[in-house]
């Protein structure tokens, strides 16, 4: 039995996670689902947004399925990434037929460093001013760049592009860029790099030039919302947080207070995150089957309101289940 720790969290996290579990639990998998609490409501109830108990459960898990939290995100998801050393955040963006957006041929993967950079949280007040410290280590660069190259190799991707700002952030981004080209020598892959600002322009004007993107934490956070927007929005964007020992799977979006409680959140991002989890745990065939079903349902126009349809969160999950078993 594999222990899957499930953390629904706040807002629409409590809607998209049950919809996803409805699908997972209809397959005969050797998984034990263990629920754990975290987030804003958890803080109100227990005085802490990330109880020690939840952290301990995560440390005994084969994988973690995470929904979303609200204002406590820094103390929950950012902390979990640090505590569990989930150094690689993998965020694919792929066009789905039937989803209206600028382009219909986007297929890229953002690999975001997940433990360093400005998100280390070293912020100080100095008089009436504030200072943040950006941490970029050689080890951190090496492991994220290696991860991106290995992923590109495994997934038959052709090109890896580094995004940085080494012209201005000469030391920190300079190190990242240097390590990127050093390590590229060990791989038979096309490599290039852009400054992050120009990279954003190209992402919007000619996204097909990108295949695998590797970048530092803050840039990766921003760029991956942009790439989510390119393929139809946050309701569709899944992610995997991977470390040496642990792995956590979550939609890119947050708790979406503007639509929470209405049962209309799009569960696709979480369902596709669960598919990434299935692949990670060795159930690639089932993952592909569910992914295909999701694409089929969406391409038939059966969608939640964010994509122009009128299905409820659970109804969408039910359609996906039906499409899994034609
Ligand atoms: P958000 O991702 O929650 O929402 C942004 C917009 O996208 C909203 O209009 C929302 O309705 C829409 N949206 C997001 N997911 C959707 C879905 N599955 N289906 C349909 N529409 C969807 O980001 P926002 O508004 O910046 O933050 C809201 C709260 O979430 C904040 O408290 C923030 O701290 C937290 N947050 C948590 C994250 C996490 O737990 N990993 C990540 C990002 C934000
Ligand atoms: Mg984000």
Structure description:
The structure is a single chain. The chain has two domains: 1-101 and 236-326, Isopropylmalate Dehydrogenase; 114-230, Rossmann fold. It is globular, with a radius of gyration of 19 Å. A hairpin with a 2-residue loop joins strand 6 and strand 7 (129-132). A ten-stranded mixed β-sheet has the order 2-1-3-12-11-4-5-10-8-9, sandwiched between helices. The chain has a two-stranded antiparallel sheet with strand order 6-7. Helix content is 41%, strand content 21%. The two termini are 28 Å apart. Helix 1 crosses helix 9, helix 5 (138-154) crosses helix 6 and helix 9 (268-280) packs antiparallel against helix 10. It is built from eleven helices and twelve strands. The longest helix is centred in the middle third of the chain and has 17 residues, at 138-154. By secondary structure, the chain is α/β, with parallel strands linked by helices. The mean pLDDT is 96. Bound molecules: 1,4-dihydronicotinamide adenine dinucleotide and magnesium ion.
Concise account of the structure shown:
This protein is 41% helix and 21% strand. With 326 residues, the protein is of the alpha/beta class. It folds into two domains: 1-101 and 236-326, Isopropylmalate Dehydrogenase, CATH 3.40.718; 114-230, Rossmann fold.
């Amino acid at each position: 039995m594999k222990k899957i720790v499930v953390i629904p969290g706040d807002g629409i996290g409590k809607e998209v996670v049950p919809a996803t579990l409805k699908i997972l639990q209809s397959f005969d998998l050797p998984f034990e689902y263990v629920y754990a609490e975290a987030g804003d409501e958890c803080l109100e109830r227990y005085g802490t947004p990330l109880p020690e108990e939840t952290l301990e459960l995560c440390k005994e898990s084969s994988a973690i399925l995470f929904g979303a939290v609200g204002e406590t995100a820094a103390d929950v998801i950012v902390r979990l990434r640090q505590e569990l050393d989930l150094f690689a955040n993998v965020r694919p963006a792929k066009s789905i037929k039937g989803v209206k957006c600028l382009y219909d041929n986007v297929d890229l993967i953002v690999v975001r460093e997940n433990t360093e950079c400005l998100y280390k949280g070293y912020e100080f007040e100095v008089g009436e001013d504030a200072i943040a410290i950006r941490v970029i280590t050689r080890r951190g660069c090496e492991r994220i760049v290696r991860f991106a190259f290995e992923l590109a190799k495994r997934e038959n991707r052709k090109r890896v592009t580094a995004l940085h700002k080494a012209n201005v952030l000469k030391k920190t981004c300079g190190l990242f860029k240097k390590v990127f080209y050093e390590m590229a020598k060990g791989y038979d892959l096309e490599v290039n790099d852009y400054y992050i600002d120009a990279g954003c322009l190209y992402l919007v004007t000619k996204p097909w030039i990108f295949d695998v993107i590797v970048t530092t934490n803050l840039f990766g956070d921003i760029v991956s919302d942009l790439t989510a927007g390119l393929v139809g929005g946050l309701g569709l964007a899944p992610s995997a947080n991977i470390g040496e020992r642990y792995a956590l799977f979550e939609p890119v979006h947050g708790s979406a207070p503007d639509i929470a409680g209405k049962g209309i959140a799009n569960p696709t991002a979480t369902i596709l995150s669960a598919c990434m989890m299935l692949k990670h745990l060795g159930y690639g065939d089932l993952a592909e089957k569910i992914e295909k079903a999701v694409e089929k349902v969406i391409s038939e126009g059966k969608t939640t309101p964010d994509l122009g349809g009128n299905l409820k969160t659970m109804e969408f999950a039910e359609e996906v289940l039906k499409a899994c078993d034609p």
